[in-house]
Design goal:
There is one protein chain. The chain is an alpha/beta fold. The protein is 42% helix and 18% strand. The strands form three sheets. It has a six-stranded parallel sheet with strand order 3-2-1-4-5-6, with helices on both faces. The chain has a three-stranded antiparallel sheet with strand order 9-10-11. Helix 5 packs across helix 9. The chain is globular and about 55 Å long. Bound molecules: adenosine-5-diphosphoribose (APR). Adenosine-5-diphosphoribose (APR) binds next to helix 4. Homodimer. This is malate dehydrogenase. InterPro entries: L-lactate/malate_DH, Lactate/malate_DH_C, Lactate/malate_DH_N, Lactate_DH/Glyco_Ohase_4_C, Malate_DH_type1, NAD(P)-bd_dom_sf.
């Protein structure tokens, strides 16, 4: 197993702290570089006392960002502001777009070879911002830029296994599209193990998965959005990515990546094969049933617009 440095940007936040803990417990990272504009020195001091081999270091303020990123194999980005009740993920755009652009410029400069995983919402727009930013620097590699949608899969697996009485650890529901509202499309017809849903169940389950983030935002009543489940899902994605980087074959995850799977949109979440250089292969969608085909067709205008908004932010500021 090669040395694997993971940089976590936004490490002192609601997602960042539990994600840092999960990465500290990871078997595949050797170094965990934590960066934030506030409070990160304390988080790192605290975390460094856990007796796992991962070496924890703290970096704070833009002048230390380069040192944090230098030599990183994987950069995970949850930096930004979270949603409040009444906001959509798209409402976060104005603040988070600039944060992601600035962080990605530093990634492009200090560790252009790293795999980048973006958690900062709206993911449908922040991933295109990152792509366009890296492209403008001449260092864009589509295989190494990933929008993290794993929480949608984690939620789908949890909800479906509970409703259908399946073993949670063996339940797998692919989720495609994007990472906001109606752009989130669970492929219930492709559930493992094979499971049947009535039309009414399919509609209700799809809406429950699409709405799950908003349920958390409302339950937290102004204190933020999903953090623990998001960290759990992002840790799973990071671990799979590190396994792929280490040459482990047959590691699949659903993720939002540059894709020609759906002709109308340049970025799309679907199952991908992870390998030694990031995304080794973007898989097709498999066979969609009539409900899924209709849902896919109706989400495309929203997804397309949110992607375009990200591209325009960099191209025509
Ligand atoms: N550079 C580094 N860190 C930053 C920057 C920046 N420019 N701007 C903000 N941060 C840090 C904050 O200091 C904070 O520690 O990002 C962290 C964000 O934490 P929270 O406010 O608790 O937000 P969180 O719930 O973690 O969500 C962050 O992830 O899922 C998305 O929608 C969510 O976009 C939001 C992001």
């Amino acid at each position: 197993c090669e040395a694997r440095k993971v940089a976590l940007l936004g490490a002192a936040g609601g997602i960042g702290q539990p994600l840092a803990l999960l990465l500290k417990m990871n078997k595949f990272a050797t170094e965990l570089a934590l960066y934030d504009i506030a409070n990160v020195v304390g988080v790192a001091a605290d975390l460094s006392h856990c007796n796992t081999p991962v070496e924890v270091t703290a970096y704070t303020g833009p002048e230390e960002l380069g040192a944090c990123l230098k030599g990183a194999d994987l950069v995970v980005i949850p930096a930004g502001v979270p949603r409040k009740p009444g906001m959509t993920r798209d409402d976060l755009f104005n603040t988070n777009a600039g944060i992601v652009q600035a962080l990605i410029q530093a990634v492009g400069k200090h560790c252009p070879q790293a795999v980048i995983e973006i958690i900062t919402n709206p993911v449908n727009s922040t991933v295109p911002i990152a792509a366009e930013t890296l492209k403008s620097m001449g260092v864009y590699d589509p295989k190494k830029l990933i929008g993290v949608t794993s929480l949608d899969i984690v939620r789908a697996n949890t909800f479906v296994s509970k409703e259908k009485g399946l073993d949670m650890k063996d339940t797998d529901v692919p989720v495609i599209g994007g990472h906001a509202g109606a752009t989130i499309l669970p492929l219930l017809s492709q559930t493992t193990p094979p499971t049947s849903f009535t039309d009414a169940e399919k509609k209700a389950m799809t809406e429950k998965i699409q709405n799950a983030g908003t349920v958390v935002v409302e339950a937290k009543a102004g204190k933020g959005s999903a953090t623990l489940s998001m960290a759990y899902a992002a840790a799973r994605m990071a671990e799979s990515t590190l396994l792929g980087l280490n040459g482990e074959p047959n590691i699949y995850e659903c993720a939002f990546v540059q894709s020609d799977v759906v002709a109308e949109v340049p970025f799309f979440a679907s199952k991908v094969l992870l390998g030694p250089h990031g995304v080794a292969k973007v898989m097709g969608l498999g066979e969609l049933d009539a409900f899924e085909q209709a849902a896919l067709a109706s989400m495309l205008p929203q997804l397309k617009a949110e992607i375009q908004k990200g591209l325009d932010f960099v191209k025509n500021p």
